[in-house]
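Page 42, continued from yesterday. The earlier attempt failed because a stray header line got pasted into the input along with the sequence. Redoing it now with the clean sequence only.
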Amino acid sequence: MESKRQQKVSSLLQQELAAVFQRDLPHLFPGLAPGISTVRVSPDLGVARVYLSQLLAKEGSGEATLALVRDNQKMVRQALAKRIRQQLRIVPDLVFFLDDSAAYAAKMDQVFGQLNIPAPEPEADEQTGEAAPKRPKLFADEDE
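This time it went through. Structure tokens are written below.
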């Protein structure tokens, strides 16, 4: 459970890092637009884990973007420090990770789409002869 201070710092870092990538350092990432999906800050506010997402990127370009960001990590941290120097006393160390949750969700959606689940056969009601929906058994000792 994150404290309110951690949540505020995470939100600030997420907004400012997005601005750094889009406005301050676009020349370091030509043709790539790394998005910041999540930022998690340690309790002492010394380390920030930044999760980068590549929603509109080709397969495999996420690793290239991550490597490029890690190579230029010092410049990213300096640009971030210029933007947040009035809000935070110490700029946290940035650790970048690739966020693959969108790819995982797409894969799960594809798997669920391929499932073939047959519809249950309706049972006939004894009194009217119409098909009545079957009520699921909630407990093992429940009578039918």
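Notes: The radius of gyration is 25 Å.
Reminder to self: strip header lines before submitting.
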